[in-house]
Amino acid sequence: MLLVLCVDLDDDLGRKTAFDTPVVGRDNVEEAAVALATADPEDSDVNVLFEGVHLADRIDDEAVEVAVVTGLEGSDIAANRAVGEEVDEVLASLSTSEEIRAIIVTDGAQDESVIPVIRSRVPIDGVRRVVVRQAQDLESMYYTMKQVLDDPETRGTILVPLGILLLIYPMAVISDWAGLPGAAVFGFTSGLLGLYVLGRGLGVERLLDRSAEKVRNGLYAGRVTLITYVVATALLVIGGVRGVAMLETVQADMGDPVGPLQVLAALVYGAVTWFTAAGITTSLGQITDEYLADRFRWRYLNAPFYVLAIAVVLHAVSAYFIGRGTLTYLAAMLTAGTLLGLTSTLTFAIAESRKSRQAEQVGQ
Predict the structure, then answer these.
(1) Residues near 357 by Cβ (< 8 Å), separated by ≥ 6?
(2) Span 133-188, pLDDT tens digits
(3) Contact 4/67 with Cβ under 8 angstroms?
(4) Phi, psi at residue 64, to the nearest 5°?
(5) CA–CA separation, 320 vs 157, rounded Å?
(6) What digits encode the pLDDT tens for the residues 215-239?
(7) What is the pTM of this model?
(8) Which residues contact 20 (CB under 8 A, 6 or more apart)?
(9) Rounded CA gap, 266 and 318, in Å?
(10) Which of 74, 184, 220, 313 is deepest in the core (most CB within 10 A)?
């Protein structure tokens, strides 16, 4: 049996029409194609669906079925996974004892990225890429360029580098008036272009969008961690400044050149108190959010105690190496940090175990 499989990776059919996917059957696929063409005549997936129906009608020497599978808009990985799940549904709906083979119909290379996912489920006899024939006159070229530039992603990819390049001449004129060398202009412009290309390549804009979305959701949801992160950042900055100040003090006290170990110890000694406050602040904020979201676990309370235990150890070790703590103080603090970590672990483990047993008894 031959399966003509039309692939719509970004789920234009599901988003623009009322059809549930996957769509199986020649008549159903034709209705879906008409519905998508009515909703958006310019969508290239319309041609994919009609091509699938056309191929099914042309093959008359064996049993043929045509189906449409869709993915998800956005992430390619999630879209491929969704297509795989819909292919499984289509195969399960086919009642035949014959071996099933597939012909894939797509509208471009992006949709063809899902072919390995489909091949893992059914043998593929061929791939049909649908290309729409258009008149190559000036009006068609203008319309095509207009459509490309209307796409936000394409517009950012083409116009931003072009705009940076066009700034070279006016920036050169301005630098000439200011008495700056021309090499500085070219260096600055190429740096801007390089940062933009690097950011696009690494997907920095998507990371920034996700970060902004998380911050916005956190503000609307009333997350305490937003406040604690800001406070912790300020504490970390203060800690860094205090660490540098302590290093200068140690260098002035010792007089002799300070070795790398003493430099590190001085920085830690000056900053550890502030870093500890930052760690405790963020952990308490996270614990509060987990409690408000009804996801609280007793073991979460270990975090601030672990931070405090590590801070005690680091403070004692750094104090010893810069001559501000005795060996007895170091041993006492190492013991205290170890006992603090063990005590918190055992205490909250017992508390969580008792809570679990009480929940089981209530459930029984």
Answers:
(1) none
(2) 654 455 456 556 666 666 666 666 666 677 767 777 777 777 777 676 666 666 67
(3) yes
(4) -130, 140
(5) 56
(6) 666 665 567 787 888 899 999 999 9
(7) 0.46
(8) 14
(9) 7
(10) 313
